[in-house]
Structure formats: structure tokens, C-alpha cells
């Protein structure tokens, strides 16, 4: 990889590759956390959920390590222009990964509550599909980052719309369940939290992909897609 | 202020003061957005809510300006140690302010929907109290930042618990309303979103205060307070 660059300072390249490797490691842990959180919810497996909660610590520690490393690189190498942009992107990407990890942990927490309630038909299957989509988006965003592949990053950004649509469909489904039977209200509130947090994970993956586009092209992708949550503007929901 | 510092490079001090002034300006806009969003919800004032949504653009633009300025300072002045920490904190604080602004905008969006539904007794008053608490926390966090006052920042961090408690009380209240009458479900879902987002604003204010503590003391405050949302662990909610 170093050969392709045109820097004078190859020490900078080595530092950068090292911290990028930490990003990939952190990304792998977060991908696992997303899937394991959704699996434990579907399987109603309290033990697996507990593991997701425990593993979040390793993700947080990696973020701190990456922050320290990035600050060290800036202080030591005084990078400018594109090199500085590369180091600053490391900070942004790790912050987004940390938030996604937090949401996975929160999902796992709610599994502990939901196992004590009657299951809501079909909900955890839909939630797992959403989580799976987000995990695949994250995988591609990280691949796009390492390969500096703006096209793949744009693809990830577009796929976030599908996640938003899944969320909006679930929101409506939960409302229906709650109206049908008041006993569904408490579990549906928790399931809705999980859906909303998964949708937010998608937003954070999108932010990672946007960083990649910015790194490669120097341009921030179109702001269009930023209407994250149509339930707040959707007229159909105002028909009380 | 410059006199108190012991830097050689006073150009750095001037740059830093300038970007800190932008932070304060951004913070002022965000404080206004929080209050105006809560006021428009309470007054059911669609026009005021529209203004909050429009004003969010100025907040986003300030964040971009601050990001560019911070990158320029790093590239130009190559700060190290505490100076670097100061510049990096600018990036983190502006990112938190931008998120708080987004939540205020989201609150204003939901006002547009809620005015079309029957009001839920007492809810908007409680929400306004929560928003007011968060706005005062933000004001103090920004004062603590400018005055490098770790004690005031710690006070802000502790006050976030009150906001969490207000949120948890509201969560229960909304559940009760929903169970009493299915017609309350849709408005309560929106009101609950607003409560949750206000609670998240408090988390972002806390993150700003933590940056201040870190800047002044070199230590990250205790992780204890990070259990942000007890509804995901609270046994009382599992009694379906």
C-alpha cells in the first residue's frame, strides 16, 4: 500500500496503516455486536445478550486507543492537507463505530427485559433483518474505507434508505399491535426502541461512508438523504 | 486572556480564541433552539416550530466553519500536547452541539404533527421543564469551557441525572396514558420521542462538560454516570 503513496514521510504511512488496522479491528467487533444482539433477541437468549453487553468494553477501549494514537500522529508528524484529513477521519470513524456499539449494547439490554414478556409475532424477525442489513452496510463501508472506494461508499449511503423504510414499516406495525391490545404496549415500546436504535446505527454507518467519499473525492456527498426519520413528517401518522 | 497563557506562539492563542468564539456563538444558537422548540410545542405554535427547523441550517454551517478552522489551525500551527488537545476538543464540542441542534429540530418537526392531535394533559409542561434544564446545563457547560472551570463542568455532569429521572418518569406516564385509551397511543409515541431526544440532548451536554473536565484536569470523569437510560434495565417495566 505504501508504494502507491507519494509522501516523503513513510513513517507517517506506517503510523496511518497501524491506526487504520485498529479501525478495522474495532469495526469487526462492532459488526459482531450487531449480529449477536439481534440473534440473542430473536433466540430470547439472555446469556448471549449478556456477552454483547460485556464485549462493548473492548470496543470502547479500542476507541480510546485510536484517539490517543491519532493525537500522537498529529503531534509527531504534523500532517497537513490530505494527510491531516486522513488522520481526522480516523477520529470521526471511530466515534461512529463507538456509537453503533453502544446501540448494540442497548439492544442486548432490552433483550433481558423482553424475554420476560410474551413475544410479539414477527417483530424480532423483522428486527433481525434490519440489523443484518446494517451489519452488511458497515462491512462494505469499512471495505470502502480501506480500498478508498467512493463508489462502494455511495452504494452504502443509498442502502440506508432501505433501512429507514424497514424502520417506518415497523413503527406502523408496532402502533397497530399496541392499539389492538394494551398488553402489547410495553413490549412494543421496547421493540420500537430497538428498531429506532437500529435505524440510528444505519445513520452512523452512513456517516462512515460519507467520510470515505470525502476522503476520496474531497466532496461531501449530497445532503438529500439526511431526512432520517420520516415518522416525524409523515402525514399518515397524524390521522389519530 | 492571552496574558495568562505561557505559549511562545501567540498566533496560536489568537486562532484558538477565534474558534472558541465561534463555539460560543454556535452554543447560543443551540440554546435558543432548545427553548424555542419546547415553547412551540407547549404553545402548539406551528410557525415558531417552522422557525426552529429553518434555523438549524445556521447551526450546521457553524459546525462546518469550526471544523475547517480547527483543521487549518492544526495544519498551520502544528500544535502539540495541551494545545493539540484544545484544538481537538473544539471538534468534539462542535459535533455535540450539532447533534443537540438536530434533536431540537426533530422536536420542532413533531410539533407540526402533534398540533393536529388532541393534547395529552400535562405532557408538554413536563417536556418544557426537561428542555429548560438541558438548556441551563448547556449554558453552564459552555461557561465552564470558556472559564476552564472543572467544578462547574462536574456540576453539569451531575445534573444530567435529574434529566434522566424526568425522562424515566415521563416514560411511565406515557405508558399509562396509552394503556388507558388507545387514542392516546399515537400522540404519546411522538411525545415519547421528544422526551427521549431531550434526554439524549442532556447526554451530549454532558459530553461537552466531560471535555471541559478533561481539558482542565487531564482526566476523564468517572464512567459511572454513563447508564443513560434506566428504562432498559428497570425491572418495573417488565411487569407486563
TrEMBL record, chains A, B:
Signal peptide: none
A Pfam family that the UniProt record links to this protein: PhoU
Family annotation (InterPro entries): PhoU (IPR028366), PhoU-like_sf (IPR038078), PhoU_dom (IPR026022)
Superkingdom classification of source: Bacteria
An annotated GO cellular component: cytoplasm
All copies of domain PhoU, residue ranges: 23-111, 127-212
Quaternary data: Homodimer.
Family: Belongs to the PhoU family.
Name of the protein: Phosphate-specific transport system accessory protein PhoU
UniProt organism field: Marimonas arenosa
Lineage of the organism: Bacteria, Pseudomonadati, Pseudomonadota, Alphaproteobacteria, Rhodobacterales
Amino acid at each position: 500500500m505504501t508504494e502507491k503513496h507519494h509522501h516523503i514521510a513513510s513513517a507517517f504511512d506506517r503510523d496511518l496503516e497501524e491506526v487504520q488496522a485498529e479501525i478495522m479491528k474495532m469495526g469487526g467487533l462492532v459488526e459482531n455486536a450487531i449480529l449477536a444482539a439481534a440473534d440473542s433477541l430473536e433466540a430470547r437468549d439472555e446469556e448471549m445478550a449478556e456477552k454483547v453487553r460485556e464485549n462493548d468494553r473492548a470496543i470502547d477501549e479500542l476507541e480510546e486507543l485510536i484517539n490517543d494514537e491519532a493525537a500522537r500522529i498529529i503531534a509527531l508528524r504534523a500532517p497537513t492537507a490530505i494527510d491531516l484529513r486522513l488522520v481526522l477521519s480516523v477520529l470521526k470513524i471511530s466515534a461512529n463505530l463507538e456509537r453503533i456499539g453502544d446501540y448494540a449494547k442497548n439492544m442486548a439490554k432490552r433483550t433481558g427485559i423482553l424475554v420476560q414478556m410474551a413475544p410479539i409475532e414477527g417483530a424480532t424477525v423483522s428486527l433481525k433483518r434490519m440489523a443484518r442489513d446494517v451489519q452488511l452496510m458497515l462491512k462494505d463501508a469499512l471495505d470502502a474505507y480501506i480500498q478508498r472506494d467512493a463508489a462502494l461508499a455511495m452504494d452504502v449511503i443509498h442502502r440506508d434508505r432501505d433501512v429507514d423504510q424497514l424502520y417506518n414499516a415497523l413503527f406502523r406495525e408496532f402502533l397497530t399491535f399496541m392499539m389492538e391490545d394494551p398488553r402489547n404496549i410495553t413490549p412494543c415500546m421496547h421493540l420500537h426502541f430497538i428498531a429506532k436504535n437500529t435505524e440510528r446505527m444505519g445513520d452512523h454507518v452512513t456517516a462512515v461512508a460519507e467520510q470515505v467519499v470525502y476522503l476520496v473525492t474531497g466532496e461531501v456527498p449530497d445532503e438529500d438523504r439526511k431526512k432520517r426519520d420520516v415518522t416525524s413528517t409523515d402525514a399518515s401518522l397524524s390521522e389519530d
